[in-house]
Protein backbone atom coordinates (compact mmCIF):
# COMPACT_ATOMS: atom_id res chain seq x y z
CA UNK A 1 0.00 0.00 0.00
CA UNK A 2 1.38 3.41 -0.94
CA UNK A 3 0.98 6.43 1.29
CA UNK A 4 -1.47 9.11 0.19
CA UNK A 5 -0.08 12.47 -0.82
CA UNK A 6 -0.15 15.23 1.78
CA UNK A 7 -3.00 17.71 1.41
CA UNK A 8 -2.29 20.61 -0.94
CA UNK A 9 -2.29 24.02 0.77
CA UNK A 10 -3.88 26.97 -1.01
CA UNK A 11 -4.83 30.55 -0.14
CA UNK A 12 -7.91 32.47 -1.27
CA UNK A 13 -8.99 36.11 -1.06
CA UNK A 14 -12.28 37.49 0.19
CA UNK A 15 -12.25 40.85 -1.59
CA UNK A 16 -15.30 43.08 -1.18
CA UNK A 17 -15.84 46.30 -3.13
CA UNK A 18 -19.05 48.35 -2.98
CA UNK A 19 -20.87 45.37 -1.40
CA UNK A 20 -19.72 43.04 -4.19
CA UNK A 21 -17.45 40.00 -3.91
CA UNK A 22 -14.76 39.20 -6.46
CA UNK A 23 -15.20 35.73 -7.96
CA UNK A 24 -13.22 33.86 -10.61
CA UNK A 25 -13.80 30.79 -12.73
CA UNK A 26 -10.66 28.67 -12.61
CA UNK A 27 -11.59 26.00 -15.14
CA UNK A 28 -9.79 26.42 -18.46
CA UNK A 29 -11.63 26.23 -21.78
CA UNK A 30 -15.07 26.70 -20.19
CA UNK A 31 -14.87 23.20 -18.69
CA UNK A 32 -17.07 24.27 -15.75
CA UNK A 33 -19.20 27.23 -14.68
CA UNK A 34 -18.11 26.86 -11.04
CA UNK A 35 -16.95 30.14 -9.44
CA UNK A 36 -14.70 30.61 -6.42
CA UNK A 37 -12.66 33.26 -4.64
CA UNK A 38 -9.36 34.10 -6.36
CA UNK A 39 -6.21 32.44 -5.11
CA UNK A 40 -4.21 29.28 -5.52
CA UNK A 41 -1.49 26.97 -4.37
CA UNK A 42 1.15 27.98 -1.86
CA UNK A 43 4.78 27.95 -2.95
CA UNK A 44 7.22 26.53 -0.43
CA UNK A 45 9.33 29.19 1.30
CA UNK A 46 6.88 32.04 0.65
CA UNK A 47 4.52 33.41 3.31
CA UNK A 48 0.78 32.85 2.86
CA UNK A 49 0.03 36.59 2.29
CA UNK A 50 2.80 36.81 -0.34
CA UNK A 51 1.38 33.77 -2.12
CA UNK A 52 -2.08 35.30 -2.07
CA UNK A 53 -0.92 38.65 -3.44
CA UNK A 54 0.86 36.84 -6.28
CA UNK A 55 -2.10 34.59 -7.10
CA UNK A 56 -4.67 37.40 -7.09
CA UNK A 57 -2.48 39.53 -9.35
CA UNK A 58 -1.89 36.63 -11.76
CA UNK A 59 -5.61 35.83 -11.96
CA UNK A 60 -7.10 39.33 -11.97
CA UNK A 61 -4.43 41.99 -12.43
CA UNK A 62 -5.43 43.52 -9.08
CA UNK A 63 -3.01 44.39 -6.30
CA UNK A 64 -4.20 43.69 -2.76
CA UNK A 65 -3.37 44.04 0.89
CA UNK A 66 -3.97 40.89 2.90
CA UNK A 67 -5.80 41.06 6.20
CA UNK A 68 -6.87 38.51 8.76
CA UNK A 69 -7.73 34.87 8.02
CA UNK A 70 -11.49 34.32 8.05
CA UNK A 71 -12.12 30.73 6.89
CA UNK A 72 -10.43 27.36 6.56
CA UNK A 73 -12.10 25.10 4.00
CA UNK A 74 -11.24 21.56 2.95
CA UNK A 75 -12.28 19.66 -0.12
CA UNK A 76 -11.27 16.37 -1.67
CA UNK A 77 -11.68 14.05 -4.63
CA UNK A 78 -11.32 10.59 -3.10
CA UNK A 79 -11.30 8.90 -6.51
CA UNK A 80 -8.13 10.87 -7.38
CA UNK A 81 -6.51 10.85 -3.92
CA UNK A 82 -6.76 14.66 -3.86
CA UNK A 83 -7.21 16.72 -0.69
CA UNK A 84 -6.82 20.51 -0.49
CA UNK A 85 -6.92 22.89 2.45
CA UNK A 86 -7.80 26.50 1.57
CA UNK A 87 -7.08 29.35 3.97
CA UNK A 88 -9.22 32.41 3.18
CA UNK A 89 -8.11 35.94 4.09
CA UNK A 90 -10.02 39.22 4.09
CA UNK A 91 -8.30 41.47 1.56
CA UNK A 92 -8.57 44.99 0.16
CA UNK A 93 -7.77 46.27 -3.31
CA UNK A 94 -4.91 48.74 -3.66
CA UNK A 95 -5.91 51.41 -6.19
CA UNK A 96 -8.64 50.80 -8.73
CA UNK A 97 -10.95 47.79 -8.42
CA UNK A 98 -11.72 47.85 -12.15
CA UNK A 99 -11.18 44.51 -13.86
CA UNK A 100 -9.41 44.78 -17.23
CA UNK A 101 -11.47 42.66 -19.66
CA UNK A 102 -8.32 41.83 -21.63
CA UNK A 103 -6.34 40.54 -18.61
CA UNK A 104 -5.00 36.99 -19.07
CA UNK A 105 -3.63 35.03 -16.18
CA UNK A 106 -0.16 33.63 -16.89
CA UNK A 107 -1.36 30.03 -16.70
CA UNK A 108 -4.42 30.83 -18.84
CA UNK A 109 -6.70 29.02 -16.40
CA UNK A 110 -9.03 31.78 -15.14
CA UNK A 111 -11.62 32.36 -17.85
CA UNK A 112 -13.96 34.71 -15.97
CA UNK A 113 -13.49 37.25 -13.20
CA UNK A 114 -16.23 39.51 -11.90
CA UNK A 115 -17.64 41.47 -8.98
CA UNK A 116 -20.99 40.04 -7.85
CA UNK A 117 -23.67 41.14 -5.42
CA UNK A 118 -25.04 38.62 -2.97
CA UNK A 119 -28.21 38.43 -5.06
CA UNK A 120 -26.21 37.71 -8.23
CA UNK A 121 -24.08 35.17 -6.40
CA UNK A 122 -27.19 33.19 -5.43
CA UNK A 123 -27.75 32.42 -9.13
CA UNK A 124 -24.20 31.06 -9.62
CA UNK A 125 -22.58 27.73 -8.80
CA UNK A 126 -20.03 28.67 -6.14
CA UNK A 127 -17.73 26.78 -3.78
CA UNK A 128 -17.31 26.51 -0.91
CA UNK A 129 -20.91 26.43 0.23
CA UNK A 130 -20.14 28.89 3.04
CA UNK A 131 -18.54 31.56 0.80
CA UNK A 132 -21.45 34.05 0.80
CA UNK A 133 -21.95 33.80 4.58
CA UNK A 134 -18.25 34.39 5.19
CA UNK A 135 -17.92 37.21 2.63
CA UNK A 136 -20.92 39.15 3.95
CA UNK A 137 -19.99 38.29 7.56
CA UNK A 138 -23.25 36.63 8.54
CA UNK A 139 -23.58 36.02 12.27
CA UNK A 140 -23.57 32.25 11.69
CA UNK A 141 -20.71 32.21 9.17
CA UNK A 142 -18.29 29.39 9.95
CA UNK A 143 -14.57 29.79 10.58
CA UNK A 144 -14.08 26.19 9.45
CA UNK A 145 -15.98 24.58 6.58
CA UNK A 146 -15.44 20.82 6.82
CA UNK A 147 -14.33 18.47 4.10
CA UNK A 148 -16.61 18.56 1.07
CA UNK A 149 -16.35 16.72 -2.25
CA UNK A 150 -14.58 18.45 -5.12
CA UNK A 151 -16.99 19.31 -7.94
CA UNK A 152 -16.40 20.52 -11.47
Would you mind describing this structure in some detail?
Helix content is 14%, strand content 38%. It is mainly beta and 152 residues long. The chain has a single domain, classed as Nucleoside Triphosphate Pyrophosphohydrolase (Alpha-Beta Complex), CATH 3.90.79. Strands 1, 2, 3, 4, 5, 6 and 7 form a seven-stranded mixed sheet that branches. 29% of the residues are buried. The model has no long low-confidence stretch (mean pLDDT 91).
Regions with little confidence, pLDDT below 50 for 5+ residues: none
**Which CATH architecture is right?**
Alpha-Beta Complex
How many structural domains? 1
How would you sum up the global shape? globular
Distance between the termini: 29 Å
Number of helices: 3
Mind summarizing the main beta sheet? 7 strands, mixed
Secondary structure tally: strands:
7
Strand content: 35-45%
Arithmetic mean of pLDDT: 91
Q: What class do helices, strands and sheet pairing give?
A: mainly beta
Q: Briefly, what CATH class?
A: Alpha Beta
SSE series: EEEHEEEHHE
CATH superfamily: Nucleoside Triphosphate Pyrophosphohydrolase
Quick structural overview:
The protein is mostly beta strands. The protein has a single domain (8-149), classed as Nucleoside Triphosphate Pyrophosphohydrolase, CATH 3.90.79.
Q: Can you lay out the helices and strands and say which pair or pack?
A:
Layout: E1 8-17, E2 20-25, E3 39-41, H1 48-60, E4 63-77, E5 82-94, E6 112-116, H2 118-121, H3 131-135, E7 144-149
Parallel strand pairs: 1-5, 4-7
Antiparallel strand pairs: 1-2, 1-3, 2-6, 4-5
Amino acid sequence: MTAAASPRLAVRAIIMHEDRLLLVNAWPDGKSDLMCAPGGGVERGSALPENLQREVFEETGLRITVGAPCLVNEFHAPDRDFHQVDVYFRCSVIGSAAIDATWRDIEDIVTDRRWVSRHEMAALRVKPDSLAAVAWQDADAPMYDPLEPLVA
